Amino acid sequence: MADPFFTPISGFDLPRFAGVPSFMRLPQVGLDHPRIDEVEIGLIGVPWDAGTTNRPGPRHGPRQIRDMSTMIRAQNDATGIRPFEARNCADLGDVGPNPADLDDSLARITAFFHLVKAKGIKPLTAGGDHLSSLPILRAMAKDGPLGMVHFDSHTDLFHSYFGGRLYTHGTPFRRAIEEGLLDPKRVVQIGIRGTMYDSEDRDFADSVGIRVIPIGEFHDRGVKDVMAEARDIVGEGETYVSYDIDFVDPAFAPGTGTPEVGGPNSWQALQVVRELAGVTIVGADMVEVSPPFDPSGGTAYLGASILFELLCVMV
Predict the structure, then answer these.
(1) pLDDT of residue 19
(2) Domain range for residue 250?
(3) 189 by DSSP, 3-state: which?
(4) Three-class SS state of 241
(5) Is 232 part of a structural domain of the chain?
(6) How many Cβ atoms from other residues are within 10 Å of residue 161's Cβ?
(7) Number of domains in the chain
(8) Which CATH number fits the domain that encloses residue 201?
(9) How far apart are alpha carbons 93 and 19 in whole angstroms?
(10) What separation in angstroms does the CA of 107 have from each of 40, 103, 104, 143, 281?
(11) 286/301 Cα distance (integer angstroms)
(12) In DSSP terms, which residues pair with 146 in a beta bridge?
């Protein structure tokens, strides 16, 4: 029987528009809370977008996702999974970034996730821009390189920006490979598309053995076939999942900083996560929701729904 403390507040007990929002209406449990050692999966916000190179705003993502996630209920309609009964889940709050210092923010995020990992908690993170994934990986890959399933319209494998800036939302996985945080032969990137400056990122992927599945191949083959290959690539080893909301077509997710047309619809956005069942997921993130470009809140709600699907495969 589920512990009542870790059971989300039901809409039958308190209307969804009332109360202080937390991720999926879960209890808020800080790292110094007396019950922190009972948490198995922690939902965490990283309100930071200092890596953004075009339209800013993802620093506001975690707050809006929390608000929209009050619509999440107890059971997955497609799989029947009731994640809040399977594991003790809690909202661990936000990592406090330094908005004036990128390096300090990277260090703060890594330190927070080191503590999460040390307590045996699997993190499920809402960003923030995609640079947020790098400091998380620095903590999660402490014991050795991880595999990764990466949903995105961009590879985020570039070396630098404007010839010198090494840390942006376009470079996190290049740095992660260089730092030995990811095993490139166990990395698959799905949905890649859009116009290009050049082929530098694709050339790097080829040189280290990263499997890139462009959007045309994704549409031609279909979700199940592509995801079967993704599961084969990461195998049975520990794997991180990184989900950029711009993987989804902007018709369904306009609230993001670097949208690319031609992507999956919102149904496929959920399907790809469900097909991760059986993968050894040690952590996951969903990034790049930008509320200033999301006046209806629909992108944030899709982001919250993707987080719920990730939670269901993590349990």
Answers:
(1) 94
(2) 22-314
(3) strand
(4) strand
(5) yes
(6) 15
(7) 1
(8) 3.40.800.10
(9) 16
(10) 24, 6, 5, 18, 24
(11) 12
(12) 182
